[in-house]
Write a structure and sequence with these properties.
It holds the Pfam family UDG. By secondary structure, the chain is an alpha/beta fold. The protein contains 8 helices and 8 strands. The protein starts with 17 loop residues before the first helix and ends with a helix.
Length: 213
């Protein structure tokens, strides 16, 4: 059973803007992750982006820098966007969870631990506020955690990837995107032994998203 957390709603500004969200998230205690994280990491990118890229959570480097997708997975994602014909600076990148969850270290690097469903639900008001401000045409969900946040616990990347569908009514947001397309997370590409094949599949999915913009 998912752990119940109070949620982030009380920390979201009444009159939000992207800069106000980035400031306000630093005080968020909507779940327990703030205790071990360096800082909250909100989304970043074009405030009028037609496309939002939605991942799981900030990683070790993102937690230290305070910016999303600045580590190895983010660099791979930028290259994949370019290969798919999408200007990396034209998108908005964010995560369903805004604090880094980790367990143990490997050298100086803290080891990622998948956030629980309770963490995802607690952070939902932050994501809803971001989507309401950016108002994208489409969202690409990167990986299983982001997919389950949007579609529910039955979501599987392998079954859904590369298939754009209408934004689900089960995840109501103000000014909902027209469509959402699931694909793998770039960190999964880095972990697999079939990296070239996995990378090409990610680019192919992003090209499908580009064609709908």
């Amino acid at each position: 059973m998912a752990i119940k957390h109070p949620g982030a709603e009380r920390w979201v500004p009444d009159d939000p803007s992207l800069p106000r969200l980035r400031e306000a998230v630093q005080g968020c205690e909507g779940c327990d992750l703030y205790r071990e994280a360096t800082q909250g990491v909100m989304g970043d990118g074009s405030p009028k982006a037609a496309l939002v890229l939605l991942g799981e959570q900030p990683g070790d480097q993102e937690d230290r820098a305070g910016e999303p997708f600045v580590g190895p997975a983010g660099k791979l994602l930028d290259r994949a966007l370019e290969d798919a014909g999408i200007e990396p600076d034209s998108v908005f990148r964010t995560n369903v969870v805004k604090h880094f969850r980790w367990s143990g270290t490997r050298g100086k690097q803290r080891i990622h631990k998948t956030p629980g469903r309770g963490h995802v639900e607690a952070c939902r008001p932050w994501l809803e506020a971001e989507l309401a401000l950016v108002r994208p045409t489409g969202v690409v969900v990167l990986g299983g955690t982001a997919g389950k946040a949007v579609f529910g616990s039955s979501f599987r990347v392998g079954d859904a990837r590369g298939k754009p569908v209408d934004w689900p009514d089960t995840y109501p947001v103000a000014h909902p995107p027209a469509w959402v397309l699931p694909t793998t997370h770039p960190s999964a590409v880095l972990r697999t032994e079939q990296r070239e094949e996995a990378y090409d599949a990610l680019v192919a999915d992003l090209r499908i998203a580009a064609a709908r913009l």
